[in-house]
Design brief:
By secondary structure, the chain is mostly helical. Helix content is 61%, strand content 0%. It has eleven helices and no strands. Helix 1 (2-11) crosses helix 2 (21-45), helix 3 packs across helix 11 (192-205) and helix 4 crosses helix 6 (122-129). The longest helix is centred in the N-terminal third of the chain and has 25 residues, at 21-45. The protein is globular, with a radius of gyration of 22 Å.
Length: 207
């Protein structure tokens, strides 16, 4: 990796006089490898960081949950309210969570149905609410754009309870309905998920 990066640096020299004849031989040997390594890095890190804060939050979540969509084979949960289920898609959405969102948008009196700062396409969630968990999984896995919309709905729901990004990440992992004020700094510090989120968020911000 070091040689490849060094040789790419040579390409940025201001004139060909800056490059020795032996360097040309090295370039022809190592340049294909350097290009491949750069492509692998871009794939690992996902698309360039941009958009608003919510876009950046969701992009980071996608990186934590599925390496930006490259690993969506999520394990079956062995206990708790999600026992027997597995997460779905690049954001690792849980079937129970999606069904809860569907119930919320079906009732205009709920916060999610009535107070979000943009208009929800409630048809998405209403349709999903009537599916079995297996049908839900198949439908969502087959539609990456639907995954993006569902993740945004969930991020908005979480945003009603937390404005801090680390708290939002904690809720994404542990449950969006955790009561306000119950996520202490100590819990955030001890959360491996939040630590991973924060490190990736910092790396993406530097790109």
């Amino acid at each position: 990796m070091y040689k490849s990066v060094l040789l790419l640096t040579l390409l940025s020299c201001s004139t060909t006089n800056d490059i020795m004849p032996s360097d040309y031989q090295s370039l022809s040997k190592f340049l294909p490898k350097a290009i491949k390594e750069r492509e692998d890095f871009e794939n690992e890190m996902g698309q360039p960081f941009g958009g608003n804060q919510e876009d950046q939050f969701l992009h980071t979540i996608q990186g934590v949950e599925s390496s930006f969509g490259s690993d969506t084979e999520h394990p079956v949960i062995s206990g708790g309210i999600h026992k027997g289920d597995s997460a779905i898609g690049k954001y690792a959405l849980m079937p129970n969570t999606i069904q809860e969102l569907a119930r919320k948008v079906s009732n205009p009196s709920t916060q999610l149905g009535g107070t979000l700062p943009y208009k929800l396409n409630t048809d998405d969630l209403k349709a999903l609410g009537g599916l079995s968990k297996e049908q839900l999984k198949q439908t969502i896995e087959a539609d990456p754009a639907l995954q993006d919309r569902l993740a945004r709905y969930l991020a908005q729901d979480i945003g009603l309870r937390s404005s801090n990004e680390q708290e939002k990440a904690y809720r994404w992992n542990m449950g969006q309905n955790i009561p306000k004020g119950s996520i202490t700094p100590d819990k955030l510090d001890r959360s491996e998920y939040v630590q991973k989120f924060s490190k990736l968020r910092a790396r993406l911000s530097r790109r």
